[in-house]
Amino acid sequence: MSNIGICAQEHWDAQERIELNKGVFPKNFSKAIDAIQYDLLGIERGKSHVKVIDNNTLYINLSFSLKNSVQQGDWRIAVKPDFFTFVPLGATSYSY
Fold it and tell me: How far apart are CA 2 and CA 23, in angstroms?
């Protein structure tokens, strides 16, 4: 089973992109990074390489081998953190 998938989000103009899921990252980063998403470059998916620098640092290399020139308006990458906890406003355990 691959940890790389394709996803689309409306706020990114539904452009096809690549997603690196939790399984790509070492276990000690699983509570920090949920996923990294990046756009295709033209029609190229690119290759990713994850290298551990130390217990707090990852080096993530994305490379693309282009056979033809590419015209593209923009290219985006997004890191989705996995350390936020949602707490509804006004929620309380106090009783008066």
Answer: 9
Taking the C-alpha atoms of residue 73 and residue 55, their distance in angstroms, rounded to an integer, is 36
Using one digit for the tens of pLDDT, what is the confidence trace for 29-74? 888 899 999 999 988 999 999 999 998 899 999 999 998 898 888 8
Residue with tokens 């790509």: 24
Q: How many of the other CB atoms lie within 10 Å of CB of 51?
A: 9
Stated pTM of the model: 0.66
> Do the beta carbons of residue 20 and residue 34 sit within 8 Å?
no
- 45-to-17, 35, 52, 62 alpha-carbon distances in Å: 8, 16, 23, 10
- Rg (C-alpha) for the chain, rounded Å, is 18
Q: Where are the alpha helices (DSSP H) in the chain?
A: none
